Amino acid sequence: MTSPLSDASLDQLFRSARTHNAWTDKPVPAETLQALYDLVKWGPTSANASPARFVFVTTAEGKARLKPALSAGNLDKTLAAPVTVIVAHDLDFGEKLEFLFPHAPGAKAWFAAPEVEQATAFRNGTLQGAYLILAARALGLDAGPMSGFDNAKVDAEFFAGTRIKSNFLVNFGYGDPAGLFPRSPRLPFAEAATIA
């Protein structure tokens, strides 16, 4: 990892990538979703805890289950997207640490306090959701991440009887440029960053 990516790659991942609100009807194959996860799983998390859980909603039946939880502003674009991913995190991530972090027996105890467990699951699950967006762009997919839904309804419908909690949604597919808003500005380095 000594060479930077090409400008074309950086454009695809960041500079030219946009948050899409409209979608073509081109489907996303199941193999692409598998490849997507197979990239995401390599992103770093605390103690390799990997608390994110992903539900790839691709069917009409799945979208019907999701629909009651969506805000009005997110309804049409989510129903039209080939894939909507529920990005969630498992508060029981510690149960997998013996497998995921084998060189530190007893690592589960590090996260035993409820506030540490919750913060760790949320923080690292959010990181993995960000990796998901970048991995999708790397595979040639467009992404439309969003809040604007009822987490409690999603959790009751998709995660009942578990300690998995939804965080945010991401629509994936092949975006229709006609649905893009003008590009919004970003803060310059001097307003957002310092070097200490």
Task: Give the structure's gist in a few sentences.
With 196 residues, the protein is α+β, with helices and mostly antiparallel strands. The protein is 39% helix and 15% strand.
What does this structure look like?
The chain has a four-stranded antiparallel beta sheet with strand order 1-2-4-3, sandwiched between helices. By secondary structure, it is of the alpha+beta class. Helix 1 (about 5-15) packs across helix 6 and helix 2 crosses helix 6. The model has no long low-confidence stretch (mean pLDDT about 95). The protein is built from eight helices and four strands. The chain has a single domain (about 5-170), classed as NADH Oxidase. It comes from Zavarzinia compransoris. Its cofactor is FMN. Its EC number is 1.-.-.-. Keywords: Flavoprotein, FMN, NAD, NADP, Oxidoreductase.
